[in-house]
């Protein structure tokens, strides 16, 4: 059983994604219908595996960003529905692949698909979903949107490979890790946010604003996830607290504690993370060191920094309900550790 470190207990009520959910609810109903139709296949296992994950919850934040950005920029067609579904399929495919690479047992509070159908099925169904995502990008008829999303798919894969190369290596630097999460997490947030203004025909400054918003929101989101793995709860994570530690993942709290530690403490981290010695006793010791060196709190501080950059990116845009909702999303992402 993992030790849990409380973070910023009870300071402020948590922000909410409810305004964004309300503003995009009608379009999200159409996105969900499209998702269900595109998971169909004559191969019975494909919809079984895909729907196991798709039906397991998740806020579907990324497609809501696409919908809201398109609406904010005045888009009046239907292709934002197609691209939002494509974004969600890209995300779902990534989760299926991630769980195989990370050998994860849980996803969104229940057994990972690989635990039910095996690694091969998870990888192949992920590939099917990526194929469907690209078909929908083509259906949207925008070469610019296709370019942005297909580039994001490549960058996500690069981020995953970078993470694999850095796995269990305490030589990973903070810059190395930020490069990983820019690829594996923030790139899709950025692309999801940018394709809305592309469809609306917005000018370059507006596109740039949404790209920056999404990228920095994604960085903040992942850094908060890093903190929650040591200071959250199973309900927050949809997986077990301490899973990153037991899997030997080098995340921001570990990097900070390692760099700030004594020679003996750094030797502990090398032994725990590089030699599969991360048992329950080691996790308890890790928690002690993370607290000693304020590593979790400082990871959250970094998340807040990127959250502020995301907020500033949208500052030049005129006031609107959608702008306020997108700013609330930034607050929500960071407040998950409040």
**Structural class of the helix and strand makeup?**
mainly alpha
The end-to-end distance, rounded to whole angstroms, is 22 Å
Look at the structure and name the CATH superfamily. Farnesyl Diphosphate Synthase
**What is the CATH class?**
Mainly Alpha
Number of extended strands:
2
Could you tell me the CATH topology label: Farnesyl Diphosphate Synthase
The biggest sheet amounts to: 2 strands, antiparallel
Structural account:
- The chain has helices spanning 18-38, 45-54, 61-72, 79-102, 113-117, 119-140, 143-166, 174-199, 204-231, 234-237, 243-246, 252-260, 263-274, 280-292, 295-314, 321-335, and strands at 106-107, 110-111.
- Residues 1-13 have low confidence and may be disordered.
- Helix content is 74%, strand content 1%.
- A two-stranded antiparallel ribbon has the order 1-2.
- The chain has a single domain (18-335), classed as Farnesyl Diphosphate Synthase.
- The longest helix is centred in the middle third of the chain and has 28 residues, at 204-231.
- It contains 16 helices and two strands.
- It is an all-alpha fold.
- It is globular.
């Amino acid at each position: 059983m993992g030790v849990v470190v409380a973070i910023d207990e009870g300071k402020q009520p948590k922000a909410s994604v409810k305004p964004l959910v309300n503003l995009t609810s009608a379009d999200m109903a159409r996105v969900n219908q499209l998702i269900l139709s595109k998971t169909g296949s004559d191969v019975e296992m494909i919809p079984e595996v895909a729907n196991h994950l798709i039906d397991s919850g998740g806020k579907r934040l990324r497609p809501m960003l696409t919908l809201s950005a398109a609406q904010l920029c005045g888009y009046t067609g239907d292709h934002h529905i197609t691209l939002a579904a494509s974004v969600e399929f890209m995300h779902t495919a990534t989760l299926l692949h991630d769980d195989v690479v990370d050998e994860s047992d849980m996803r969104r509070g229940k057994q990972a698909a690989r635990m039910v159908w095996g690694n091969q099925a998870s990888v192949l169904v992920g590939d099917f979903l990526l194929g469907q995502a690209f078909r929908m990008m083509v259906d949207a008829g925008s070469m610019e949107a296709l370019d942005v999303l297909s580039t994001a798919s490549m960058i996500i894969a690069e981020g995953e490979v970078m993470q694999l190369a850095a796995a269990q290596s305490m030589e990973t630097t903070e810059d190395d890790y930020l490069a990983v999460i820019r690829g594996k997490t923030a790139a899709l947030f950025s692309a999801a946010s940018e394709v809305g203004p592309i469809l609306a025909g917005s000018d370059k400054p507006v596109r740039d604003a949404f790209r920056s918003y999404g990228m920095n929101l994604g960085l903040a989101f992942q850094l908060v996830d890093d903190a929650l793995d040591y200071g959250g709860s199973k309900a927050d994570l949809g997986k077990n607290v301490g899973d990153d530690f037991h899997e030997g993942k080098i995340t921001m709290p570990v990097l900070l504690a390692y760099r700030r530690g004594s020679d003996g403490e750094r030797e502990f981290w090398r032994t725990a993370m590089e030699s599969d010695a991360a048992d329950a006793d080691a996790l308890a010791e890790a928690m002690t060191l993370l607290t000693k060196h304020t590593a979790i709190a400082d990871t959250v501080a970094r998340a807040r920094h990127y959250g502020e950059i995301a907020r500033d990116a949208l500052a030049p845009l005129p006031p609107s309900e959608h702008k306020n909702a997108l700013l609330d999303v930034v607050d929500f992402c960071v407040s998950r550790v409040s």
